[in-house]
Structures are given as C-alpha cells and as structure tokens.
Queue: 4 jobs
Job 1
Amino acid sequence: TLKRRVVAHLLRNQLREPLQKLLFHIGEVGDFLGQNVFVVGGFVRDLLLRQENFDIDVVVEGDGIGFAEEFGRRHGCRVRAHRKFATAVLVFPDGFKIDVASARTEYYLEPGALPTVETASIKLDLYRRDFTINTLAIAMNRAHFGELLDYFGGQSDLREKAIRVLHNLSFVEDPTRMFRAIRFEQRLAFQLGRHTEHLLKSAVRMGFLEKVSGPRVFNEMLLILREPDPLPAIARLDELGLLAYIHPRMSCRSEINRLLAAAKRTVDWYELLYTGEGCQRWQVFFLCLFSGLDESEVNQVLRHLGMPPRYAEFFGPERETVHRIVHQLEWRCSQRRNLSNSEVYRMLRELPIEALLYGMARTEHEEARRLMSHFVTHLRSVVSLIGGRDLQSMGLKPGPCYGEILNKLVAARLDGLVSTREDELRLVRRLLAG
Ligand code: ATP
C-alpha cells in the first residue's frame, strides 16, 4: 500500500490564511457529500517546491459538478459547469477561480486525438497526467487532511529535478506534452529524465507531432512564450527539433538568437517602466521567431497553426508594416537630418506596442532605436489640451476636419510650438483663418 506523507505543516506554513481556510472548506463539503476530495497537480508540485501558485485544481472522487454546486451554495460562488467533461469552475465574488473535476480516466483511441473519458478513482485520474511531478495530490477531507498521495514517484523526481513521463506511450498519446516537458524543464530548471528525453526524441523522429491539430500546438507555444524568460525553452525546442515542426526553416540560431535576446531586454525594459500597462510579450517573441521567414512562409505557419484572425493580421500584414516603417526610420536617421518629434510621431503612431518593441529589438541603428524609445516613453501619450467640444463652441461644424485640427495641435505640442490652452486656441483660429 501507499505510504502517505503528511504535508499539513506545509499547508499551514506556506499558505496565507484565507487559502488555508479555503482548503479546509473544500474538505468540509467533501465530508458533507461523503466524497473524497483532493487538490492536485501544479498547486501541489509548487507547494513542495515552496513556490507560490494560486491555481487550485480540485478533483472529486465522484460527482465534481455536484460538489461545485454545494460549495457554491455555501460560499456564494457562481458555478460554471461543463457537463460534457464533468468539470466545473467555481467563481468567487472577487473573481478568484477554482477548477473542479470529477476523477476520470482517459483512453486515447488514436495518437494525437482527443481522449475518450470515463469516471474513475483518484489514482487513475493521476495516471493520465503528463509528468510524475504533476501527479501529486493532497487529501482535503477532515480525516485525512494534508495526506500526500504519491503513486508515481513524483516526490522523488522533484528531489532529483527530473521531468519524467509516466509511461512509454505518453508523447505518442499526446504529442503536445513535448512542449509541456520543455516548458516545465526550463521554468523549474529541471532536466528531462534520460529515458523521457529518449522517448521525446523518438516521438519527434517518428513525426507524431503531425497528428496534433495546429491550434493545440499554438496554445502550447503561447504558454512557453508567456513564461518570464522563454529564451532557454526556445533554444531547447530548437535543439530537440520542435521549432522545425512549426516551420522547417524556423530556428533560433545566430541572428535570431541575438534578436530574441534584444527583444527580451526591450520587453523587460518596457514592463519595468509600465508595470500597469503590460504588453503581449509572446507576440514580440513570435515576431522574432518569424523574422527568418519570408511572407509566404509566415502565411504557411499562420494557416498551419490555425491562428485566430486577429493574430493572423498582426503577424501577417502588420509585420510587413513594421519592417517598412523601421526601415524608413533607419534611412531617415542615416540622412543625418534631425527628425522632429512630430515626424517621429507620425511614423510610429499606428504601431501597436508589441510591434514597436520588436522594431526596437530589430534595428541595429542606434539613433533609430533611440527615437523609438523616445516615442514609447514621451511622445505616444501626448494629447492636445482642447478637444472636440472646444472646437464646437468655436462654431466649427463637426466633421473630418476635427481630426485634422486635433492632429495639428498634437503635432504643434510635440514640437514645442504650443504649451497652454490659449496657445492652442490661438493656433486653431490661425488655422481656420488660413
Ligand atoms: P502551470 O503552473 O503552468 O499552470 P500546471 O501544472 O498547473 O502548470 P496546467 O496546464 O494548468 O498545468 O494543467 C493542470 C494539470 O493538468 C497539470 O498539472 C497536468 O498534470 C495536467 N495536464 C495538463 N495538460 C496535460 C496533458 N496534455 N497531458 C496530461 N496531463 C495534462
């Protein structure tokens, strides 16, 4: 039988009180319904690693949706049930969420396809998971509170810092796990186990990734590119032949590697300055990975990964626009003529922040980079002091001329030609007279 280690002290010492209470309430509802409940997966992994994680996944040996409904009634949560998967999301009044699932087992009828699902014991539920370090569970019911379930050697792999699959067919059943393996390996500074790395390489060699739908691969790429530092994971994807699956010519060697490093510095710089605003870092990194490909190759990738149209627009035509604008800026800088603020503004203002950051990383022209950075920090937020209402009260009929006038006001402000409201009003009168 399984030797159970008690980790109640970790729950007590590592977690803040509201979270401890929450776990206790989860056990209470399980007791009330006569069902075993566990927290599982990443939360437990990170608890043992002493790392903070607020993503709580609950597994109920029995009816997960019934559990969620009872918990929701008691604690004022909304319940979003997914009957097809026997799962539910508990949404607390403050927006905090908990995933609840019914313990289940999965059969893969075909490699790479989505699995067929049946309810099962917690042990079988844990067996369908990707890596041993994600198979740990902690009991929540009062009589067993804090007992750690470790059926597949998860604790020992945490100690050894090893990413290991549970069985030889794991990557064949679900090839997206290859991406996940690398994400965890690099995030946690672990290593793929020897046998696991061997299995991964064979799965790549045998082309199992071809069986996975593009959007699922895209989703795993997104998760990797959203990690705080995705560069080591990208290098590892390349080394193991996974980038080549996205496109045979996609790689992160030499030039692209330099570009990725510059993008990382630029994105970090931006996020340090604008903590509140943030940006879609992954888009900047994806642009870098695309930069070795021409337009038609990028389009192949977009189709292949089934990227949603809004992204397809960004990585397709918009990418061409950035290249053109950066090129123009570099050319104008090399003419050694000083560009006015309003000229810089006019060139760059249509670009989303992700495109600008990519442009900054991409250019090797010192002055062009300086101007882009100046645009980001100073120019892009400049607005005129007077607005449409003022123009109206000056007797001007609303129409496209409003936009033109306001643009001229911003340009004048950028170039230091106006500073007060009166300056602006005077300029408008001059424009109208002229
Ligand atoms: P993160 O810290 O990035 O949120 P996580 O371990 O919580 O990582 P999720 O993607 O939220 O990962 O998945 C939750 C759990 O579901 C994981 O712990 C894992 O065991 C399991 N899981 C997710 N995807 C797969 C998969 N493709 N195959 C098997 N198990 C998976």
Note: DSSP finds 22 helices and twelve strands in the chain.
Job 2
Amino acid sequence: VQLVAELRQALERDEFVAVFQPLFDSDERPVALETLVRWQHPERGLLPPGEFIPVCEESGLIVELGRRVLDQAARHYRRLVDEGLPGLRVAVNVSPAQFNDELVRHVTETIQRHSLPPEALELEITEGLLMQDPERAIELMRQIAALGVSFSIDDFGTGYSSLAYLKRFPIDRLKIDRSFVRDLGSDEDDAAICNSIIGLAQALDIRTVAEGVETVLQLDWLRARNIDEVQGYLLGRPMPFEELLPLLLRYL
Ligand code: G
Ligand code: G
Ligand code: MN
Ligand code: NA
C-alpha cells in the first residue's frame, strides 16, 4: 500500500523516465528503439522496472504509466526525425493489465497528438497475454493493427503459445527470448530452439528478432541463419536518448 501511494506520487511528480535500446538489421543498421521505463527515485536513485512494474500492474497504475511511456516514445520519434533520422520504429512494452479498450484509445490519441506515423510504432506483448483470452486479444490486436501499428511477441519461447493460434494473430515479429540466445554456440538445445523459432517464423512470414546478443559468436550464429534483427549489450545497452543519439547519427 505504501509503495502504491509512492508510485501514485511519482506519477504526479513525473519521476518516470524512458531509456532506449537500439535494434539493428542484418546490414548492421539501426532500425528501431525499444522504450524501457525507469523510476528516478528521489532517494534510491534510478530503479529498474522489476522494482515497480508488478505493483503498477496490480494497482492499475500501469494504465497511466503506459500512457506516459507511449507519449515518451512518440516524442522521441519526433526527435529522431528532427535530427535527420526518419524511418526508425519506436517499440513500447505492453503488460496484460494494459491490454484493453483504453489502450486502443491511448494509441489512437498518441498517434494523432504527435502526428506519429503508425508504421513507426511497435507494441511488444507476451505469449501469456495472447493465451489468457485469445479471442479478445485477436480482436484488440486487429483494431490496433488496422491503425497501421505493428506487434512483436516479446520473450518468445518462454510461454505457452499454440502454433495454431500464432497464425491467427496479426504478429509482425517474434523476439527470441535472451535465455535461448545466451548459450548459442555451446548449448545444442538452445541452438535447436533458436533454429526452430527462426524456421517457424519464416514459414509463417513473421520477422525474427534475437534479444540479449552479448557476443560476436552469438551474432554470427544468428546472422548465418538469416535473423532479421538483433538487440543486446554487444550492440547497445538501454540508455538515455541524448546518449544514444550520437551513436545513431554515426550511421547516417
Ligand atoms: O529495462 P529492463 O531491461 O530492466 O526491463 C525489464 C522488464 O520490464 C522487461 O520485461 C520489460 O518488458 C519490462 N518493461 C520495461 N519498460 C516497460 C514499460 O514501459 N511498460 C511495461 N509494461 N513493461 C516494461
Ligand atoms: O522483456 P524485455 O525483452 O522487454 O526486457 C528487456 C530487458 O532485457 C531489459 O531489462 C534490458 O536491460 C535487458 N537486456 C537487453 N539487452 C540485454 C543483453 O544483451 N543481455 C542481458 N542480460 N539483458 C539485456
Ligand atoms: Mn521488450
Ligand atoms: Na524480451
């Protein structure tokens, strides 16, 4: 209860900040930024999402927080364009507790308010969200996809999504969970899992993204299998926009 009150106050005081992690395509060019929220706590410093997202989800505060994050993503997309970097996507994580009609409204409003090209916006959702109430998920996804916004399945491989269903959702990308990427090159099971996910995605005409790429070995392994996009500490950590911008400008 204490933390909920603190979080409500943090929203009022605008203490949530966004950091951004770049994603790169197979030509090693930046193609997207994932928006990741942090809490700039007045006494405890910069707190990671694990310390407050669960409570935000339980208390419903995630709805307002999600709206702020979406707004940050749209504002920073505009910054990219102003700096001569058009064409990158901005991705935002969406919790199951946010996945309702209000999200459709927030997305629609954000696109209009910031003149954000809908194709530039990507929503990251989890398998858990899809499987909780698949019919409802499909309906909401179709409404949002109709705007031109795309969907990624985050942490793919850790949940229990049925392949039959996967085909029915308007999904643009699968983000292979970093637990499968970690031991690529040494663990044969992880290599087999990554191979199957990439093969499945290619068969369903869905793009693939590997997250948690930390070594050149992993990167080469994935590129040899035609992974579409990569993300990870090797290529760029989550960082404040002002820090990331000069790195992106180098690719111009
Ligand atoms: O930023 P970090 O890598 O520590 O993220 C940890 C987890 O928090 C990830 O699972 C990520 O999806 C989640 N997360 C980060 N930012 C947001 C956000 O703005 N909204 C929601 N719902 N989850 C987020
Ligand atoms: O669940 P989601 O994919 O949204 O989580 C993103 C989280 O993954 C963030 O907490 C981010 O800091 C973390 N992350 C991003 N790249 C790497 C990486 O290369 N290695 C590890 N261990 N974590 C990463
Ligand atoms: Mn994510
Ligand atoms: Na992930």
Note: The mean pLDDT is 96.
Job 3
Amino acid sequence: MTDVSSKGPGPGDDRPVLTNRQGHPIYDNQNQRTIGARGPATLENYHFLEKISHFDRERIPERVVHARGTTSYGFFEAYGSWGDEPIARYTRARLFQEAGKRTDVAVRFSTVIGGRDSSECARDPRGFAVKFYTEDGNWDLVGNDLAVFFIRDAVKFPDVIHALKPDPVTFRQDPNRIFDFMSQTPESLHMLVNLFSPRGIPAGYRHMQGFGVNTYRWVNAEGETRLVKYHWMPKQGVRSMTAADAARIQANDLGHATRDLREAIDRGEYPEWELLVQMMSDDEHPELDFDPLDDTKVWPEDVFPAKPVGRMVLDRNVSNQFAENEQISFGTGVLVDGLDFSDDKMLVGRTFSYSDTQRYRVGPNYLQLPVNQAKNAQVRTNQRDGLMTYHVDTGGENPHVNYEPSITGGLREAEYPTHDEQGPEIVGRITRKRIPRTDDYTQPGQRYLLMEEWERDDLVENLTTMLSECVRPIQERMVWHLLLAEDDLGLRVGEGLGITPDDVKHLEPLAGQDLTEEDQARLANLG
Ligand code: HEM
C-alpha cells in the first residue's frame, strides 16, 4: 500500500502548503509521530496535539435562543424624507438624512426555540436582526417576524422560554408545559393568535416581515423625542406555510430557509425589504386603550401610519458560517445618536441580556471580531486585555495612557450633540407593578377578525390540535381566554376540544388580572 505522506507535492502542484498556526510547514498530515510504525506515540507531537486540542474546542455555547440562523450582507438606502417632510424633523440619526445614502448591513434570520441543527419549518417566531455599520458606530435593530411578543416584562423571559423549550426530564417540547404557562399569562394571547395562524411558519426568510416589536425613541437636532416602532416589509411578498406544507418540506430538508436565501443571493436575485416607521408623541397617550410601551400591542395604522424611511437589499453571502453567523452578536443597546431607548420594560431587560450572553458565549472581546466591529466608525477605547484580545484599540497620542482624564495624551470625551438628557421628565415611586391598560383581549380578537377565512380555519385547527394534547384544566382556561378575545374563536376551539362556554363559566379571573369593562361583560355572558 502506498504511504500517502511520502508522496509530497508532485511536479506542477502549486497549491499553498499546509502549516500549523505557528507558520510551520506540515510535512506529514497523515501519521502521528510514533516509535516505530506500530507505536507507541510520543508526547512531543506538536502538530497532532495542536490539531486535536483545537478540534476539541471547535464549538462555543450555542445561543440560548435563536440558535439556528443564517447571516447575509447588503446595504440600507435611505429615502431622506416623507414626501416634502424631511426625516431630519424627527431624528438626527445620520444614516436616515440624505436620499440615496447607503449604509452597510449584516442581517441574521433565525428560528427561536430549536438548537443549531433544528428544523427551519418549526412553528416558532423568526428572528430578524439587522446590524447597520454606520459612520457613527453600529446600530442593531433586533426584531422578529411577528409584530408582538408573549410577555411584556423582561423578568418573565426565562419562564416563557423554559415553557417553550424541551422538558428538562424528557427533552421533548410539550404542549402541556407551553399552554400551562400561556394559560396563566393572558398577555401572550395576541402572540398566540399570530403564532398559530399560518404566519407561525413563514415560507422562508425572503418572504417574511420584520418588526422591532419593542418601542424605541427618535431624537431630533433640538433634542425633541418621539416614540417609534419599526417594520420591515419584504418586496418579495409575505408567504407562509400550513403545518402540512411544513411537514412535507421538513421530511427532506431541515434547512430549507437558509438554503433558499443563500441560493437566491448566489443567483443574483437579491431580496429587498422596505423599512417603515410608526411614530407618536412621547407621552403616555391616555386616549389609547393600551400603553405604547406594551410590546403585546400593535399601534393601529389608521391612527399611526407606517411611513417608509428606506430600503434594504441583501446581495452577499457569508464566506464562513462560524466566523460570520455563529459569532455575530446583536443587541438592543447598540444604538447611534438620534435613536434611543424607551422605558418599555422588555427593551430595558433585553438590553442587559444580549451583551451579557455574548461575553459568555463568544468572549469579552467579541466586539473586536471583524463581523462585530464598528467598521465604518473609529473605535478608540481604554478597554484592554482579556481573553482573545485581537488588537489594542487605542488611538490616543500616547499609548501609555489607557485611562481618562489625563493631561499627557490619551482620549478625551466627546461633546454632547445637543442636550445631555432627552425625553420627558419622569417622577415616580420605586415599585413592582404591571403597567395599567393591559387589555389582553381586544387586539387578539381584532386580529382574528382581520384574518382571511382560510387563515382562521388554520388557526383554529392548529390551536385545537396542540391543545388536544393538554390536560383538561389547561384546555378550559385556554378556551376561557379565547372566548374573551372573540366568541367565534373560543366557540370553534372549544368545539374541537369538547368544551362549551357553560363548562368554563365557573372560572374566576386570574390573580391580579386587569379586566376591562368589556371583558367583564363578556365574562358575565359566558355560557
Ligand atoms: C437573541 C434575550 C426578547 C429577538 C437573544 C439572545 C438572548 C436574548 C440572550 C441570544 C443572543 C446571543 O447569544 O447572541 C432576550 C430577552 C428578551 C428577548 C431577555 C426579553 C426580555 C426578544 C424580542 C425579540 C427578540 C421581543 C424580537 C423583537 C431576538 C433575536 C435574536 C435574539 C432576533 C437573535 C439575534 C441573532 O441572530 O444573533 N435574545 N430576548 N428577543 N433575540 Fe431576544
């Protein structure tokens, strides 16, 4: 038998030579170093030990949510105005100012609950995270494909995710655990009505909407603030799948959405989305029956029209999944001047969570990785050292000065663009209270009524199928909620489960539930 290691490069083989990471050429990549052809092996076998021990560390912890995803690159192009109205009137963020101005972007689409190799056909929200590499530093808009979320306070996030993830004993996703939590969390109803409709399984990443979900602020040059919500609309149109479509695709391909996106970009069919913004004055809006800081609500578009601010095109695939998709790190704290947070209690909690998990998952210097760097802005910090420091981002005149203030060089603070603080003054008592105006039923009911008939049928079937695996008390409480949202929805799901309004009328409201007068009237009429 020929010993391939002894072959060496043949004449005319001008491929580059394999080395180790010290730059040493590898003469034999087929055989370990041993004493005699039959061993034993020696311990100073540097190439073998480096190769195996690096392999042993090839995986980093996967994202605790949104583990399966895919990243692509492209650009965002601003429109600069709404008709005659310059966008500068509302935000001073430089990326939005001039018509035609382009900003590089990286976008990661994902599913939420499954692991890195799970099916992309799952009924699950889809992540829609956009990193804008602006001249003022990075801006991350970390959204989902559905406009609302399950909960409105970040303190409940680990609970909702635990309920949706596999059972810790059996490692199976379990409808009883999911609906146990949801039935005790009526704010989840609006999300459930979306998730169990055909929208719960997008046909692919090119055919889904994106929503910032949480409420943010825009700030103009005068320091005036407004509340905003962001929406992405696909030029390719919105397409979804039924559970039967999904089962068919999943039987052959767990990664159809990633494949579809990559192949479309390879073919030069660049997907495109328009970014729209809804806006309202920065106050509590007592005239509304919901709170503008509640992410379980949408803002009615007839009152707060969604206005286009630019378009995004994806035209390049990543060249390495690990470096550019696994290690890319988004966060809701990553904002540029002219864009700000609101007091949305989910947003505040998210903002801590993202960079916290990335320091753990990727490492403390995750922002030095090429895909995460603010590549179109100057980065100059006094942060030093730590695991995997890639370079020193000094920039001061004196590299000895890694502190501030100093009179011997080093970095100085920037001037405030206008005001040091912006937005309304807040006076209050420290407390732990849910926001008023929770109204958990009106919008899910309206959403149901807005659906086309086939979508309603699909929603009823999906809910009934999953709830039929749950124990009776959970089924009854879910039917109770659905009846409060919309009679027809509650009656139809109830019928599928063999539960009538009479069967659930004895149920009391949940502890602390904030029912509107309309809810109470519905409750009185159950049965
Ligand atoms: C990913 C936390 C709510 C969208 C993540 C990750 C964490 C997290 C820890 C993993 C990040 C990583 O490893 O890099 C939270 C918390 C939430 C919350 C604590 C609520 C308090 C939401 C909501 C949305 C959302 C409401 C949608 C608007 C995303 C997306 C990703 C993600 C798109 C994936 C980002 C990527 O592709 O790398 N979230 N999340 N999350 N989250 Fe959230």
Note: Residues 1-6 have pLDDT under 50 and may be disordered.
Job 4
Amino acid sequence: IDALRALLGDAHVLLPGEHDLAAYERDWRKRYAGRALAVLRPADTAQVAGIVKLARAHRVPLVPQGGNTGLVGGGVPDASGTQLLLSLQRLNRVRQMDPSNLTMTVEAGCVLQSAQQAAHAAGLLFPLSLAAEGSCTIGGNLATNAGGTQVLRYGNARELCLGLEVVTADGEIWDGLSGLRKDNTGYDLRDLFIGSEGTLGVITAATLKLHPQPRARMTALAACDSLRHAVTLLDLTRSRCGAALTGFEVMNALSLALVAKHFPQLAQPLGPRPWTVLLELSDSEGEGHARAQFESLLEQALERGVIDDAAVAESLAQSQAMWHLRESIPLAQSEEGLNIKHDISLPVSRIPDFVERCDALLAERFPGSRLVDFGHLGDGNLHYNVQAPEGTPPADFLRERETAVNAVVYDQVIAHGGSISAEHGIGQLKRDELAQRKSPVAMQLMRQIKQALDPDGLLNPGRVV
Ligand code: FAD
C-alpha cells in the first residue's frame, strides 16, 4: 500500500474503512458484492504498468474495472478482501482524432457516450450504442466485446476496434495502437485481448473505427402477433432497405408491461401486443427518403398480414422516445427484482422455434414463471429472462430455481445451434456453464492462452476460465 501511494498519490489509493467503496465493490445488478483490499485510480498508462509490476512482485490479484455496468459479475472483487480493484476511470482522454483515416484513439476509461460525442463533434459516427452508454467505458466495452443496438449494420466492439494499447501481466506496455485496416503480421494480439474480460491484460487505450454520419435516422414501431412474423418482417426490411437498416429490436408483451408498470410516464404508441418491433433506418439521402422507405415497407407488411399496426416517428424526439422505451426494459426488470438472465444468440431463422419450445418447457416445469423476452433480433441475440411468479420473492426464486431453469434454457440453446453468451460475456456468472458447454478442446486452448499470458493467475482470477 505504501508503494502504491508513492506511485499514485494518497488520494488515489482508496482503502476500506477510510472510504465508502460500495460503488466499486457491488455490481450493477446488485447480485455480486465483494471486498477490495484497496481501490486504485491511476491517471495514465505508466501508472497502470507500475501497479501491475507491484501487484506481481507482491503476488496480489488485480480486478480491472471500467464503468461497472457489466452484467456477469466480472468487474467486482471477490469476498476475500485480498484483491486490488484497478479502476480505469481516470484514463479518459481522447488522444487523437484522424478524420481522413476514419479513426480516433481514446483511453480505456473514456465513457462510451463521450467517445460518441467526440466522433460526432468531428462530423463522424462511432456507432457502438447500448443502454449503459452514459456509464460504461471503452475499455469495458472492448474487454467484454460489447454488442448493443447497431451490430447488424456496424458489428460489435471487436469489429469497431483497429488497435489496442495493453499493459501485460508482466507490467509491460504493448503499443498496438495501429489505425491500419490491413495488417497481417502474425497472430492477432488485438483480437486475443478483446473479449478477454480483464483476464489476459489491462486495456489502457484503443484506436476505434469511425463511420460517416448518416444524413437521417428514423425509427418506427410495428406490432406482430408472433415472433415468426417478426422474422418475416426482418427479411422483408433487409431485402427492401439493405444497409440502411441499423436497428431491429423485439420486445414481448411482458417486457413492455413491466416498463408501463415501473415507468408509466413513457408513452407506448401501439398499446399491448404479443410482440413489438423497433426498426431504425439510417439514410444517406435524408429524412424524406427514410420516411418514404418506411411507409412503403410498413404498408406492404400490413397488406401481407406480417404486422397489424405501426407508428413511424414524426420527429427526432419521438425516435428517441421509442429507443427510450426499449432501453428501459432492463431497468424495469431490475425494479421488478432479481431475475434469471440469459443473454443468448441463435441463428435468426431458429429463434421462433427456440422460443416456442423453451416457453412451453418452462411453463410446464416452473408454472407461473414470467418470461421477459427482448433483444437484438436483427443479429440473432435475445435476452431471454425468467422472472419469478407474481407473489414469489425474486431472491428465493433465483436461489432455488436458477440451476434448473438454466439447464432447460441452455439445453435448448445448444440444441438450436446457439451460444450461451451473446454479448455480456462470461464473468463469474457463466464460468462453470462455459466449462460444461464449450468443447473440451476449446477450453484447453483457452486455459493454455491464460497460462501463457498470465502464468501467475493474477489478472481477474476466477473469471472466464
Ligand atoms: P465493467 O463492468 O467495469 O467491466 C466488465 C468486464 O471488463 C470485467 O470483467 C472487467 O474486469 C473488464 N474490464 C473493464 N475495463 C477493462 C480494461 N480497461 N481492461 C481490461 N479489462 C477490463 N452489453 C452489451 O454488450 N450490449 C447491450 O446492449 C448492453 N446493454 C446494457 C444495458 C444496461 C442497462 C446495463 C446495465 C448493461 C448493459 N450491457 C450491455 C452490459 C455492459 O454495459 C457492457 O458489458 C459494457 O461493455 C461494460 O463496460 P464497463 O466499462 O461498465 O465494464
């Protein structure tokens, strides 16, 4: 602790007893709470490297943390009180903007929304977008390979990153901040660190890919009586609008009912429907063209019986209100109480069969359990969450049923060719599930990589592998 104080200054080594560390020690869902030996707040990459060297010399584990919005318990310390929490929040500068190369280099603790705003101020678009964007950080986004609402057009965090700066488990600094779109010089170290959830190295900065800003963005809601029809609407929209389609989200009736219950001030233009789809077009020709595209698409969908109602946003404020509705679902669920979350991906074509089968099995085995289904249908990612029956305390339901519910859901995910983690990662929540569900060969390779890069197991121990 003395050495850390000498490195960072007393004000940036926060000790339990002297400071309230709850905001660092408890996760967003309030599911995991640990105790940190100390919370460290370095200001730059050199200080991060110094911390890692000290941690290594004293054999003390480190847990990197950005905005602490992760949903799998990956960024909070365990209960032992022996782990250092390494907060990246003070590394928050935009280091470089290169409009001609369509890139910007930002530090790991830069909040996603600030990175979006920096790109916007340069007349460009950084398209990564998710409901936690006001708090999550670029380092956390890359460490979890975050997805969000624009993946079907622009890809996930991995596809938006060209280069990284990383402090290795030895405390060395790897400067891989290249803004190159082509670079075939051996193994792809960048892709190894992306999605590694703080277990292989500490990301300190990244060079990110930017895109031209679309001239207009427009949103619509459409009501479908089944998920099968929602998939047909996706096919139709893709064939008519091509790359202009930048968002395609689905919400089942219960997910919007929870929003109505906990946020009654939010308008729901279509009223209760089995499935509501949120579509977004980003148009390079302007607002008039986007509106015309939407109107003819939705008219055709109505005529074919694919949807039975629709509303196109009349203004930017209405577009934002529609997104707000969608993004309020996790918050409404959180208000309703702890639930059993499944962030899964499947081939889009198999999603309706999966949901039908899984809904039926859960209704039979766990009568009264409530299914809150929503997510990024456009890229095959569903948040298939199971809420306790009305009247059952959520914590009891979670404790008594989680393992059995997970077995039903994940068996069906695998049977339908899917993945048990689409975008939130593994953390502690799915670590044991991963070991059971991933091929033994893949697990062995992952353990060998961990062993090679962090032989002492000091970076985020007990997470992922
Ligand atoms: P943290 O929670 O602080 O950390 C997450 C993991 O990354 C931990 O394992 C941590 O150790 C590691 N880590 C953090 N920073 C670094 C670093 N610099 N170097 C190495 N490792 C690091 N996720 C999606 O993908 N899509 C969504 O649509 C989405 N919606 C969300 C909505 C809400 C309301 C909330 C609360 C969360 C949502 N998330 C979503 C999950 C979460 O926001 C993302 O996982 C996000 O990328 C985490 O960023 P963070 O900075 O908060 O990371």
Note: The longest helix spans residues 394-415.
